[in-house]
Amino acid sequence: MKNFWKRYSRKKRWWTIVLDFLFMAFVIVMLFPGTRKPVSVFLIRQTLFSPSETDKVVFLSENDWQLSLTRTGEQKELSLENFKGKPLFVNFWATWCPPCVAEMPSIQRLYDEYKDKVAFILISNENAAVINRFIEKNEYSMPVYSLLSNVPAVFETSTIPSTYLVSPSGRLLISKTGAAKWDSPKIKKILNQLLQ
User: Fold this and answer.
1) CA distance 175 to 157
2) What is the largest CA-CA distance in the chain?
């Protein structure tokens, strides 16, 4: 029994040293701006989960459908009304936001699967050149839009990313602030039900 405790204490010390080393390495990496964002994105991606449907029954009002947009790099003005009759996937994001960047691959995979059936509306108010560089660098093909009007109350938030899934009839099914795993079986099941 005495030997067991000696071995246990050695193992405990070894793990403590390893954990201390990992913690110090993490702190050092986070001190440098060039590595802070990639490390944050990596850690966030490891913890993403699928969002749940909202319990509230909220429908978009006629005013909400008037949210005015333009596709990045184009001049044509659109509103959400142009997408009526399809499920809407509305996402507010920015290239400088680690949680936004972390969830982008799952949004791209969802877009690849449902692009003709679901209206994907990714909204960023950053400069078009910054957005285009980010999209090209990551080889994303999702459509990105800029706002031309104020955000209606139903989509108002102070947090990005913020994502909303709206049924073809205008019911708000998911209202999620923060990063999520958007290509999960749960989300695909909801979309498949909406598309029946």
Assistant:
1) 10
2) 78
Residue whose structure tokens are 């999209």 = 135
Alpha-carbon gap, residue 136 to 120, rounded angstroms: 18
pTM (2 d.p.): 0.80
Nearest to 74 by CA among 131, 18, 31, 112: 131
Number of Cβ within a 10 Å radius of residue 158: 6
pLDDT of residue 129: 93
Six-digit token string for 178 = 């923060």
Neighbours of 88 (CB within 10 A): 21
- Alpha-carbon span 105 to 100, nearest angstrom: 10
Strands 77-79 and 68-71: antiparallel
- Is 4 a residue whose pLDDT tops 60? no
